[in-house]
């Protein structure tokens, strides 16, 4: 029960990884509320006790599986704002990334579970916001973007609209959608110059 | 079992309404996957059989409860685009509207259930898009908005960002957030004039 975990055994690490991948799969397939530890274990040929030796419960297991989503992010520096935004978006188009489907499986549970929100924030939201801030920072330095834009708000548009498509519309996130977000919303919001004061 | 429903009996209509409100409450409290028909019935002092006489199952009950969210939408016509967008947003700030919490309770299930998506589309998404299109149509006629904007994309920003706050950030949708969406994203995306062609 309360035995200390023995880190570093290769077989154990392989099983850990397999259990986390199975958890990601089930989050994408049925979502958090319908995911059972028994099913996760069964997919790896293990029993529930094996999972409970490693994680205190479902919430901790899922948080760890979400943490694994923090993959290789490209560090875009193409020389133009639009080029950088397109490259930034390429991670969302990667067919090997199940980030979007996994997070969609968490959305309802996240509203009630601060631990899940924290896991998604660290693994998904913060890396996105950091890259967005770096891209726009260079665009400001180049004079492409005036200072004083609401970057936190504008930076939330891309993840917000893609998740909206995945859930409310159940529409896939493809190259066309990404270009519509960039050209229809992000570029104008970032680069516009107001000609006159509005009342 | 297959008895025809008797419409028009006041007591029955009252119970129908109570069951739908209880369903909305539970969607907001625990989400779709953890909502049980037994709990809905118990909150109204009824049994499961009472619910099953009215709805074929959970999916149909929830779709009906979502349909009831289609409340009174203001028809904004203040004379300016910004004024109309602010008035449009007031429905999201109505503390009596549980639309946002109810839909948050559906997001994960919606990804896998076309019936739920259809219910949300008809009760929430389409009324929003219709009002947005009317507002922008008048702004185009007044010369505030150039023709050719991607109105479907820009119109999805408001619901997308508000749901993003409710789930990923678990932040409330208040007046400040609404003004940041309108001034930081919607107004520039709708009204900007590109000075030069971009490569």
TrEMBL record, chains A, B:
InterPro entries assigned to the protein according to its UniProt record, in alphabetical order: DNA-bd_HTH_TetR-type_CS, Homeodomain-like_sf, HTH-type_TetR-like_transc_reg, HTH_TetR, Tet_transcr_reg_TetR-rel_C_sf, TetR_C
DNA-binding region positions on the chain: 36-55
Pfam families: TetR_C_11, TetR_N
GO molecular function: DNA-binding transcription factor activity; transcription cis-regulatory region binding
UniProtKB keywords: DNA-binding, Transcription, Transcription regulation
Entries under Gene3D superfamilies matching the protein: Homeodomain-like, Tetracycline Repressor, domain 2
UniProt entry tagged with the keyword Cell wall biogenesis/degradation: no
Protein name per its UniProtKB record: DNA-binding transcriptional regulator, AcrR family
């Amino acid at each position: 029960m309360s035995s200390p975990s023995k880190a570093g055994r290769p077989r154990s690490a392989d099983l850990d990884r397999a259990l986390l991948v199975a958890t990601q799969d089930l989050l994408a397939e049925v979502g958090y509320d319908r995911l059972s530890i028994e099913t996760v274990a069964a997919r790896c040929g293990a029993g529930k006790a094996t999972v409970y030796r490693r994680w205190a419960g479902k919430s901790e297991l899922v948080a760890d599986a979400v943490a694994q989503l923090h993959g290789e992010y490209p560090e875009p520096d193409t020389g133009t704002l639009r080029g950088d935004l397109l490259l930034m978006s390429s991670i969302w188009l990667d067919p090997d990334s199940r980030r979007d489907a996994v997070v969609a499986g968490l959305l309802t549970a996240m509203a009630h579970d601060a631990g899940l929100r924290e896991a998604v924030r660290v693994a998904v939201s913060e890396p996105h916001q950091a890259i967005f801030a770096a891209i726009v920072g260079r665009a400001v330095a180049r004079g492409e973007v005036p200072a004083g834009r609401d970057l936190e708000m504008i930076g939330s548009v891309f993840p917000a609209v893609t998740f909206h498509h995945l859930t409310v519309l159940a529409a896939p996130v493809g190259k066309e959608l990404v270009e519509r977000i960039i050209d229809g919303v992000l570029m104008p919001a970032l680069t516009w110059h107001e000609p006159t004061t509005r009342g």
